[in-house]
Amino acid sequence: MPANDPRAKAPDHVAIIMDGNGRWATARGRPRLFGHQAGARRVSEIVEACPELGVRYLTIFAFSTENWKRTQAEVSGLMTLFRRYILKEAQRLLNKRVRVRFIGDRDRLDPKLVRLMDDLEALTEANDHVHLTIALNYGGRDEVTRATRRLAREVAEGRIDPDSVTAETLGRFLDTHTLPDPDLVIRTSGEARISNFLLWQSAYAEYEFVDTLWPDFTADKFAEILARFGKRERRFGAVIG
Ligand code: FPP
Asked: What pLDDT is attached to residue 95?
């Protein structure tokens, strides 16, 4: 890679809160699900843009532990959309050498959807061109709580000495234990909140809040944000220069 190649300064891991599907649809006088469908097409575009932009890890927030509070019609529409996305995109993701992982609590999800998720993970397991992680029924506090429960069990059964527990120990129990921490978190649609997304992992991440609604978030917009990231100076708590 040439020294001035923008990929040299690209964030290795980008996490995205894909917000604004509902407003995008409402602005067009269409049902909210229409916005989610348009949002799903953007997911494919952004995943495919990653290699050229130098992003190896992409994590997207598809459904939060709080999203169950939406109407039953919207929840079941989203679940159908996830199922269709997996069925429709599996082969393409495999061919594009994308490895797919899911994070979040699978216990509350339909077992048929969970089977598709497991199958897609297994199908793409040997890929390493892009690592796509889809957060589905995911909440940062819920993840830390589940991790703590598992860690507490190890301690109670005498396999881990409580005095030896460090942040790294807890990290091994998180859903994201095989992933690097995100370098950049993007949220679309003008809201400046993190909404329980990757709370532990984003301790030193940079944030970008952009006004664009997710269905309008193109690969070019993504590239613009990454170029801005390349100009930032990250200190990780230290003093530089
Ligand atoms: C937030 O927009 C979006 C969601 C809760 C769902 C995200 C889902 C997708 C982008 C669809 C497909 C994903 C995959 C992985 C196939 P919102 O509905 O809260 O928008 P609003 O704030 O304008 O109402």
From this structure: 98
Domain boundaries along the sequence of the chain: 13-228
Count of H-run helices and E-run strands, the chain: 7, 6
- CA dist 87 and 82 (Å) reads 9
Q: Which of 4, 5, 12, 19 is catalytic?
A: 19
Can you tell me the mean pLDDT for 111-134?
Answer: 98
Span 126-169, pLDDT tens digits: 999 999 999 999 999 999 999 999 999 999 999 999 999 999 99
- The SS3 call for residue 210 is coil
Q: What confidence score (pLDDT) does residue 235 get?
A: 72
Options 4, 5, 12, 67, the catalytic residue:
67
Q: Which CATH class is domain 13-228?
A: alpha beta
Do residues 133 and 59 lie in contact, with contact meaning Cβ atoms separated by under 8 Å? yes
Q: Return the residue matching tokens 């993007």.
A: 186
* Test site for ligand 1: of 17, 19, 120, 213, most ligand atoms within 8 A of the Cβ: 19
Say whether pLDDT at 4 is over 70. Answer: no
Ligand 1 is surrounded, with C-beta below 6 A, by 18-23, 36, 39-40, 43, 62, 67, 81-82, 85, 134, 189, 214
